[in-house]
Specification:
With 381 residues, the chain is mainly α. It contains 16 helices and no strands. The chain starts with a helix and ends in a 16-residue tail after the last helix.
C-alpha cells in the first residue's frame, strides 16, 4: 500500500501540475480562450483510448512492465513543454503523456481495491483518493501560479515527477498480478463494463463540472490570487471528502451519499457563478463547497462500479470508471469553452449545476447492490 501511495502521489503530481496551467500557458502563446481547453482535451482523449486497452495489455505483458511504460510516457515528455507554448506543440506532448496517464489510472484503481479487506474497502479507496487529492490541492494552484508568474520552464521540469516513481514499481508487481482472476469467465469483462456504466456516467457529469472549473477559472480571473486560492480550497475540500466518504460508505453502504454529493456540487458551482458576478468571497466559498461534492462523488462512484461489476471484472470496471472520469474532464475543458464564449462563464457554471441536479435520479439508480450495509465482495477484484 505504501508503494501504491508513492506511485500515485508522484504520478498524479505530474498530471495535476499541468491540468489547469496548460490552458493558461496556451493563451499566453496566442491561443484563443475558447480553444485553450484543447490541450486538456487531447490529453484526456488519448487517456480514455488507452484505458480501454489496459486490461488486454496487462494480461499480455504483465502489470509491472505496463505500469513502468505508463510512468515513463507520463513523465519523460513533460520538460518539452518548455520548448514552445504553441497550441499544436502542447497538444502533441499532451497526447503522449495522456497514454501514460491512462495506464496509471486503471492499474491504480484496481490495486487500491485489491489491497484491502472487504469491510474496509471504502477506507482503502479513500486513502488512494487522498494520495491523488493531496497532489491536486498543492499542484493545481502551484501550476497555475507558476504559469501566471512566467515560470513555465520550472513547471515543465516539475511535471517529470512520475519518473521518480519507477523504483517503487517492483513492490507492486505481485499485487498487480492478482488484481484480476487468471481465468475470468467468458464475457466477464463486457458484463463488468456494462454493470459499471451507470455510476461511471454519474462521475462523467461531476468531472465535466470539475474540468470546467479548473480550466476556465484561471482564464476568467488571471490577475491576482483569486483563481489560485479558489483551486486550493477546491483541492483541500475535495481531498478530505474523497478520504472520508469511503469510511462513511463502509458504515452506511453509501446509498444516499452519491445523490447528495451531486446536490452539494451543484450548490457550490452556483455559488462560484454568483461570485464571478459580485464578490470574490463567494467564489472561494463556492469552490470549497463544490470540492466536497466532487471528492465524495469520486469515491462513491468507484465503490459502486466495483461492487456492481463482479469479482471477474475489476480491471474492466476500473477502465470504464477512469474513462468516464477523464472523458468528463475533457468535455469540461473543451465544450464548456464554446458555451462560455456565447453566454459567459458564470451562466455556463449555472447551466452545468442544473445538469448536475438533473443527474440525481441516475445517481439513485446507480447505487451499489447492498446485502449488509457494505459493498459486496465483487469489488475485491
Amino acid at each position: 500500500m505504501r508503494s501504491l501511495v508513492g506511485v500515485t502521489v508522484l504520478g498524479f503530481t505530474g498530471y495535476w501540475l499541468t491540468l489547469a496551467s496548460l490552458p493558461a500557458y496556451a493563451v499566453a502563446g496566442g491561443a484563443a480562450e475558447s480553444t485553450a481547453g484543447v490541450v486538456t482535451a487531447v490529453f484526456l482523449v488519448v487517456t480514455v483510448a488507452v484505458q480501454a486497452a489496459v486490461p488486454a495489455l496487462t494480461r499480455r505483458f504483465g502489470a509491472g512492465p505496463v505500469l513502468i511504460a505508463g510512468l515513463l510516457a507520463l513523465g519523460l515528455p513533460a520538460p518539452l513543454y518548455a520548448v514552445s507554448n504553441g497550441l499544436a506543440w502542447l497538444s502533441w506532448i499532451s497526447a503522449i503523456r495522456g497514454a501514460g496517464f491512462g495506464v496509471l489510472t486503471v492499474l491504480g484503481s484496481v490495486l487500491a481495491v485489491q489491497a484491502a479487506p472487504e469491510a474496509r474497502r471504502g477506507e482503502a479507496v479513500g486513502l488512494y483518493g487522498l494520495a491523488i487529492a493531496v497532489p491536486n490541492l498543492l499542484a493545481v494552484p502551484a501550476g497555475v501560479a507558476l504559469v501566471l508568474d512566467g515560470h513555465s520552464t520550472l513547471l515543465a521540469w516539475l511535471a517529470l515527477a512520475p519518473v521518480l516513481a519507477l523504483p517503487m514499481v517492483p513492490a507492486l508487481v505481485r499485487a498487480a498480478a492478482s488484481a484480476e482472476p487468471p481465468h475470468p469467465a467468458r464475457g466477464a469483462g463486457r458484463r463488468a463494463a456494462l454493470a459499471a456504466l451507470a455510476p461511471s456516467l454519474v462521475l462523467l457529469v461531476v468531472t465535466l463540472a470539475g474540468g470546467g472549473l479548473v480550466t476556465f477559472l484561471p482564464i476568467e480571473r488571471p490577475d491576482g490570487a483569486l483563481a489560485t486560492a479558489a483551486l486550493l480550497l477546491f483541492g483541500v475540500t475535495g481531498a478530505l471528502a474523497r478520504w472520508r466518504a469511503g469510511a462513511l460508505a463502509d458504515r452506511t453502504g453509501g446509498g444516499r451519499l452519491m445523490p447528495a454529493s451531486l446536490v452539494v456540487a451543484a450548490v457550490g458551482l452556483v455559488a462560484v457563478a454568483a461570485g464571478l458576478h459580485s464578490a470574490d468571497a463567494a467564489v472561494l466559498i463556492g469552490a470549497a463547497v463544490f470540492g466536497l461534492g466532487y471528492g465524495s462523488a469520486q469515491n462513491l462512484t468507484l465503490l459502486a462500479a466495483f461492487s456492481r461489476a463482479g469479482a471477474d471484472g475489476a480491471t474492466a470496471a476500473s477502465a470504464v470508471w477512469n474513462a468516464a472520469f477523464d472523458a468528463g474532464t475533457a468535455l469540461g475543458a473543451l465544450a464548456l469553452g464554446g458555451v462560455a464564449a456565447g453566454i459567459g462563464l458564470p451562466w455556463t457554471y449555472v447551466a452545468v449545476a442544473v445538469v448536475l441536479a438533473l443527474t440525481v435520479p441516475l445517481a439513485v439508480a446507480a447505487r451499489p447492490p447492498v446485502a449488509s450495509g457494505r459493498p459486496s465482495p465483487a469489488a475485491s477484484g
